[in-house]
Each structure stands twice: as structure tokens, then as C-alpha cells.
Amino acid sequence: MAIRDWPARERPREKLLEFGASALSDAELLAILIRSGRQGSNAVELARGILGQFGSLRPLLSADIATFCRHPGLTRTRYAELHAGLELARRHYETALRSGPGITCPTTTREFLIARLRDRPYEVFCCLYLDNHNRLIAFDELFRGSVSGASVHPREVVRQALARNAVGVIAAHNHPSGIAEPSQCDELVTRRLGEALALMDIRLLDHLIVGDGHCVSFA
Question: From residue 48, how far is each of 17, 28, 41, 85 by CA, in Å?
């Protein structure tokens, strides 16, 4: 049955407008984004089939374009639309950090970094540069590595911090394995980075390691 023939309160868009997005299932939310089904199935049925094939939303949204498009009903256009929505969600977290009174809540910072880094298939080292009120000036992905590591150069972190007139830095990197346990190398990088920034009177406020849905803080 076509969605337009459903009772109004059961249609995903109408349901969202009346009850809010949290009232919808994953399949219903996905159906709104993909907008139409394919021959023999409406958008909700297609969305349920897609989630069944991938297992859940996370592997669907972290799949590369080739894997994504191998599944019936999934096209390059739909890949672009879903990832545009995902990037908007990430930027929403960043906007909250920029417009807020300052980064005083670790939870907000962790949510932002998890959204940015959790599903990367390679290691990324990034920095949040803060002003003297702990407000976000900029977020930079500075170094990109492999599955097992990324080379970090404290001199470049210091250069970027000075260029932005930052007085504080929060460093972060992900572990593609999903295990956020700090390594000896992580501890060494943290110490060297803190020492290099301190020479310029810039504080290293924290170094966060992003794993599978959680962070470990050196602070």
C-alpha cells in the first residue's frame, strides 16, 4: 500500500510534525529522507529492507559509496542526500560549541567529537582552538594516518594555535579499532604537545581519545 493511502497520523512526515522526530522509528526517519520507494515497495518498506541488509543505521551511514550503491534502491543521489543530512548534524554540534558561553560542559565536547570522528576508517588527529573565555575559535583536522596511527607534529599545532590567537587547545584523535585505551605513544604525544604549547603560554586543556561511542580523557 502506498504511504499516501495510510491514515494521516501513521504517515512518517505527518507523524513527525505532530509528535516530533523522536516518535519515529529508524525506518520511518530514513523513509522521510529517501522520499520514495521502488517498484513493489513504498519508502518505509524500502527503508526497512535497507536497514535489514546493513543491520542498523550506523553501518549504513558509514558505508563508502560503492558499498552503499550495491544495494537495490540506493543510488549516488541518495548517498549524497543522506550524507548531507549527517554533515548538518555534525555542524549543529559545532555551532553549539561556537555560540555557547564557553566549553565548560565535557559532554557537549565529547558528543561533537564522537559525531566527527567515531566512524572514520583511519586515525585523525584534530584540535579545538579556544579563546580566553573557552569559546571555540576553530576546529581543525590536522593529521591523518592509517588504521593504526597518525604522525603528530606539535610544531604545527602550535603554529595553528598562534595563527588563531588561541589561549587554549583541546586535542583529540580517534582509534578506528573502537578501543579508546591510551597507548604509550598517545601519552608521549600529550606530554610533548603540552610542553610545546606551554612555551607559547597556551594551555593544553585536554586530549581526548574517541572510541566506539565513548571518549577517554587525559585530563
Answer: 21, 8, 10, 19
